[in-house]
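re: that complex we talked abt at group meeting.

here r the seqs, copy pasted straight from the sheet so there may be weird spacing, ignore it
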Amino acid sequence: MTMVDNGVNVQALLDARQALKGAPEAAQFTWRASAKWQNGVHSTTTVSNFFGLGQEHAHKSDAVFDADHPEVFAAEDNGITPIEYLLVGLASCLTAGVASVAQNRGIQLRSVESTVEGQHDIRGILGVDSDVRNGFNDIKVTFKIDADASEQDIEALVAQSQKRSAVFDALTNPTNVTVEVA
Amino acid sequence: MGAGHAGLAASHFLTERSIDHVVLERGEVANSWRYERWESLRLLTPNWQSRLPGHRYEGPDPDGYMTVGEVIEFIGRFATVSRAPIRTGTNVTSVTAVDDGYQVTTGRGEIRCRAVVIASGACNQPAVPQIRHAVPESVEQLTPFDYHSPAKLPDGGVLVVGASATGVQLAAELRRSGRPVVLSVGEHVRLPRTYRGRDVLWWMDASGVWDQRYDQVDDLTRARRLPSPQLVGTPERSTLDLNALAATGVELVGRWAAVRDGHALFSGGLRNVFSLADLKLKRLLDTFDEWARTHGHDAEVDPPERLAPTRMPESTRLQVDLRSGEIRTIVWATGFRPDYGWLDVPVVDAKGQLRHDGGVVDSPGLYALGLPVLRRRKSTFIHGIEDDAREVIAHLTRYLRVRH
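got the structure back, here u go
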């Protein structure tokens, strides 16, 4: 078999899978973000640390994300809208999945591009019609993949990536969410 | 333990090797076929494939599929001709390891033996997810063990959960009875009933897919957890996939993820489980075609076919209000699990599965038969038991000889 290098250390992931089989408590992660209001609908959200493998970890550096609304919403557009972050999360999660699955299946990737479109009826969030949901009605991700593989194998890559995607699951399945005032 | 096809096959090979044994059966021969199956059920395998060691179907319809009554008769006849030493009505309440063997406690007394073969089946109890507790009381809940026929259900809508062979068959039957049916679909295995003019199980058999050994399967844990394929045995030999169901008006929704405020919430990932099943089907059909080409069978079968992809409904509901009266009954076709409550030997893992290597259980002298992909992909099918039983009993024989 030809050596495939998509830059994913699949062996480490497979080793982790094996190690966690007997240690479910180590697999419990808590991801965190903290947000701070700036002005108007503009906020900044910082991601710096998380808990996992039984201990606290810090990212190499803090990541700061601006969220705002566009000018058509009479805002200042200091950042993308919160719901766009879901699309960023979905696209990046699926892309990571494609690379990992490709590495594991011995498929050399040359390029992976995707566009994500979320259909959103804003009458929900504006309270125009209570039958309209607040979130996306429909999300479509379109991948363009150049790789040493048949069309069928590429389709299987993308399908498997969805099957293992945290963000795909979080968007398609309900999750308990508690919001409270500290 | 167990006088179904697996226990009787074990008995056949034990007799052949002149090893003293008894077959303990909680009820009657083929007990689960008698009491734990719905009325319209037929085997997924064609009659010509119904074979047990030294015993095969000899009726007039080799391409047909046995009814439950015929299966009971078939296994019963095997029990008679093989003269298996069966003790019916003998419920095993515990098995413990003792010096040089096992102590078996039954409703009819104690038995000491040097080896035990567990052939009590893989489907002793329905596996129903925890969300059943969140379902409003106004909705009746059934498992395939309680389900007999549509006539026994309350009028009104039915939510069938699970799209394995059981789920699709019950959804089709309930829909035919005139009820609105919603089918909640998670990962599933799609198969056509016939391919290139032959039963799809002929292809599985002939091309060697079914003989694939457990130690050659890529991901054995996954293979053992695979849901049964979407197949039904009917006189018309028709395909019962999700397209066929949707065409009769069954509404497809995603995997049932939760109940919130009396609403069933379904996954929005339906399209992906469709494409996974379609991709796997296509890969399997490619394997068949490749086998036919390289083994010179192309001329004797019809030309290659490709099935239309599973059609995504125009819109799918992500929730259904369980308090509205739309759904009167839920049928949980979410699989089965074996029951090892009586087994006082530490060989069952945290998920309730027996730890074994090809039927050789992780305790000397303890064996299993009739579990999914026990030694081959065909292990749980009636015709799949012969090779497994021969090998497992050969191992048991060596074990007894060494210990003696």
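couple things i noticed - Chain A has a mean pLDDT of 94. Helices of chain A lie at 10-21, 82-104, 123-126, 151-163, 166-172.
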